[in-house]
Amino acid sequence: PIYPPNTDGSHAVRLGEGVASALSPDGKWAASTVHGSPSRIVVWPTGAGQSRVLPDGGLVDQQSVSWAPDGRHVVFMASQAGQAPRLYRQDAEGHGTPSPVSPEGFQVPLFGKPLSPDGRLAAAVDSQGHIKLQPLDGGPAREAPGFEPGDVPLRWTSDGRGVYVFRFGELPGRLYRVDAGSGA
Q: Which regions of 118-180 does DSSP assign to beta strands (E)?
């Protein structure tokens, strides 16, 4: 369906089902998570073309999909049945199954965009509630200075030097920018 025009005269067009997650860097694809049994990630063309259901590799509760800057991979949070969530990386064309890139217990907020602009790191919250910087090559996560327990990472700054966070329980709510190197 085509929806009523926006205030600028443009129209919204429904691409498919699921919870919208992210647009590819080139704007040609949209990723969504479709909840159900089984849950799945679907990649929808924003123009002509066919959608793709990414192989789930037995994972459940996929969510928080982000596109890697190369446009060829997605990173998302999911879990194996009965296990804690973690971050996974997958080919966006649907080749192969998801590969874990973090330990169990790592999470990102539902609409957060955890990937650094260069696609090398994800800002995630570990099982103790601390923000860790997780290399996507699967190396060990590192704790960055300046983050406080309860900080929730939302997205990286455009220059890749900092992470925007908010703090649960802080009213009025504020947005903070934390330098990922110095902690300032």
A: 121-125, 131-135, 142-143, 151-156, 162-167, 175-179
The mean pLDDT of the chain is 89
The token pair that represents 68 in the structure block? 């890697």
Q: What is the pTM of this model?
A: 0.88
Dihedral in degrees, nearest 10, Cα atoms 84, 21, 183, 174: -110
What is the spatial distance between Cα 121 and Cα 169, in angstroms, rounded to a whole number? Answer: 27
DSSP per position, 64-88: EEEE-TTSSEEEEEEEETTS--EEE
**What share of the chain has pLDDT > 70, as a percent?**
93
> How far is it, in rounded angstroms, from Cα 167 to Cα 37?
33
3-state class of 173 per DSSP? coil
Q: How far is CA 118 from the centre of its chain?
A: 14
CA distance 14 to 8: 18
| Confidence class for position 2, pLDDT limits 50, 70, 90 | very low
Report d(CA 85, CA 59) in Å as an integer.
Answer: 10
Token match 């998801």: residue?
98
Model pLDDT, residue 1: 42
